[in-house]
Design a protein that fits this description.
alpha/beta; about 15% strand
Length: about 450
């Protein structure tokens, strides 16, 4: 957050000029195929759609379910993976927008994300964490690069695996650590042991909602509220490939589409909805195809490639700022740990873990900035990693030394009492048209006694 974006040039139809690729200003839009009828007027009733895919590789494997019997003769469900698991790791795709400084900043955020979660895992093993811990291992590029594309006034609502986006938007690592430890200095003052906190005053963050999909209509409402106050803002949130199957997901996207709201939705297609593989969740090949049904742009990116994630996010954010409506971005990657720390993910075939381990987003981006672009020397890279580790250790000390909340503090903050806070418009009073006539009293169609 806070990075200054260079203004990009647009051609007459709103797409980016000179890139050779389809800009997301046109993604998913209908392409009207003209035909002539007897009156020589073009007909626009035939439409085709396309979902741009920016990936440089398309993994070719499937997961199949089979039954195994144990020594006692009881059947157990097991999964096996089939396909080409020896494919070479693709290079990072060149960004159309990111410069040297910005790439190094995103790389640092990704390192901070990874090191923070390692520290959280150690705190859990030491018995200092209250409840469970959720990890975004393998998804750091998606979380950090997407949040990096937002402007200061844009809004976001992370899910449990998007802890990197919190760091990019100004939260400290100690905030997340204290939250999991239910400390008095945590964002919720010890009233919650996971990620249910937000900041609508300074960081424009809506608190995560455990009922998956519910954040989508809420963020759409934020965009609508900003529009009523005269602003077109981008509102970014995330959903997994399992959570996107919920009904409220469809309702929220459809509302944003109909109202032309600036929703930027990342579908983190990470192959497993808890212990259910994607092949047993939905029939379509790519979840981005569902954007067609809403009449909005959809795009596919490699979720382990920070440049692809940033470019797609930035173009979606710019569409939102122009008032052109929502964008659905499917980021394909692998959830490299179980659902939470209690889940060993033994249901995942080891070959899948090995395949995606070679595509570690941090290792790939490190190779990109150090070896390919030579923007960091090996010594500078070592110094950067050491600096991140020092920051995390200092943040861990802050979290560990924070006191537990006092028992009497539990009764405060339960209800919104008189004078606790003022609710006021963020950008100004809503802009409404004043009518000239009064309301006419009409007879109700149905009388209920």
């Amino acid at each position: 957050m806070g990075n200054k974006k260079t203004k990009s040039k647009h051609n007459s139809n709103g797409n980016r000029a000179g890139s050779g690729r389809v800009g997301t200003a046109a993604l998913g839009r209908s392409v009207e195929r003209s035909s002539t009828k007897g009156n020589n007027k073009p007909s626009t009733d035939l439409r085709t759609y396309s979902i741009p895919d920016y990936r440089l590789e398309h993994p070719d494997f499937t997961v199949r379910q089979h039954l195994e019997k144990d020594r006692q003769g009881q059947e157990h469900v097991r999964y096996a993976v089939e396909g080409n698991l020896d494919a070479p790791v693709p290079p990072i795709r060149e960004s159309k927008y990111l410069d040297k400084k910005q790439c190094i900043e995103i790389y640092r955020w990704m390192l901070l994300n990874r090191k923070m979660e390692v520290a959280l895992e150690n705190l859990y093993k030491q018995g200092k964490v209250v409840g469970g811990v959720y990890f975004g291992l393998g998804q750091e590029a998606c979380s950090c690069a997407s949040a990096y594309a937002l402007d200061k006034d844009d809004w976001f609502a992370p899910m449990i695996r998007n802890q990197g986006s919190l760091l990019v938007r100004g939260f400290r690592a100690s905030d997340t650590m204290m939250q999991y430890m239910a400390k008095a200095d945590s964002p919720t003052k010890g009233r919650d042991g996971t990620s249910h906190f937000g900041d609508i005053e300074k960081r424009n963050m809506v608190s995560p909602i455990s009922m998956l999909g519910d954040l989508i209509p809420v963020l759409s409402g934020v965009a609508l509220g900003a529009r009523l106050q005269g602003r077109n803002v981008a509102v970014m949130t995330y959903i997994g490939d399992g959570g996107q199957s919920t009904g409220v997901t469809y309702e929220g996207i459809n509302f944003a589409a109909v109202q032309n709201l600036g929703l930027v939705l990342f579908v983190e297609s990470n192959l497993w909805a808890y212990s259910t593989p994607s092949e047993m969740q939905y029939r379509c090949k790519d979840l981005a195809e569902r954007a067609i049904g809403y009449g909005i742009p959809g795009v596919i990116v490699d979720g382990t490639d920070a440049c692809q994630v940033y470019d797609a996010a930035r173009e979606a954010v710019e569409r939102a700022h122009r008032g052109e409506g929502p964008t659905l971005i499917e980021a394909k990657m692998m959830r490299m740990k179980g659902h939470a720390i209690h889940d060993a993910a033994s249901y995942v075939p080891k070959a899948m873990f090995e395949f995606w381990k070679k595509r570690d987003p941090i290792a790939r981006f490190e190779n990109y900035v150090v070896k390919e672009k030579k923007w960091l020397t090996p010594k500078e890279n070592e110094a950067l990693i050491a600096e991140v580790e020092e920051v995390i250790e200092a943040e861990r000390e802050i979290a560990v030394n924070s006191p537990m909340p006092t028992p009497e503090s539990a009764e405060g903050g339960v209800f919104c009492e008189d004078g606790c806070h003022e609710i006021k418009p963020k950008y100004g009073m809503p802009q409404v048209k004043k009518g000239t006539g009064g309301f006419k009293q009409t007879e109700a169609a149905v009388h209920l006694k």
